Amino acid sequence: MEDMWQGVIIIARKDPQEGYRTLVENQPVYIHPSSALFQRQPDWVIYHELVMTTKEYMREVTVIDPKWLVELAPQFFKVADPTKMSKRKRQERIEPLYDRYHEPNSWRL
Question: Is there a domain that residue 6 lies in?
């Protein structure tokens, strides 16, 4: 198992909207239709390469358990304390939802 981590770690996480997102660049990617995992759509995967056709497809995809990331690559990953919020998250501003038929601030009273 540790041999998989010797090179660059290329990891993608299932995107709730569509496909996957790469962990480092947040790039949208998809499992190639010829993959045995195409119908399964696991939550976390590592892959060997990206192939650009109609979409950016991952090739040589392997399912991983996210807990492995902390164990096998602690220089990149750590377990977060679920009771604490990161500085970046504390500074994030939540934007109100609106649609194209109304002004962005029309929800305000």
Answer: yes
For residue 23, the enclosing domain spans: 2-77
Higher-confidence residue of 71 and 1: namely: 71
**Highest mean pLDDT of the ranges 6-15, 21-30, 93-102:** 21-30
Contacts of 34 (CB under 8 A, 6+ apart): none
Q: How far is residue 25 CA from its own chain's centroid?
A: 9
- To the nearest 10°, the Cα dihedral for 92, 98, 103, 107? -80
The reply to whether 8 falls in a domain is yes
From CA 58, how far away is CA 46, in angstroms rounded? 9
Beta strands 56-59 and 28-31: pairing type? Answer: parallel
Q: Is residue 46 part of a domain?
A: yes
Give per-residue pLDDT as tens, 17-71.
999 999 888 999 999 999 999 999 999 999 999 999 999 999 999 999 988 888 8
Could you give the 3-state DSSP secondary structure of residue 11? strand
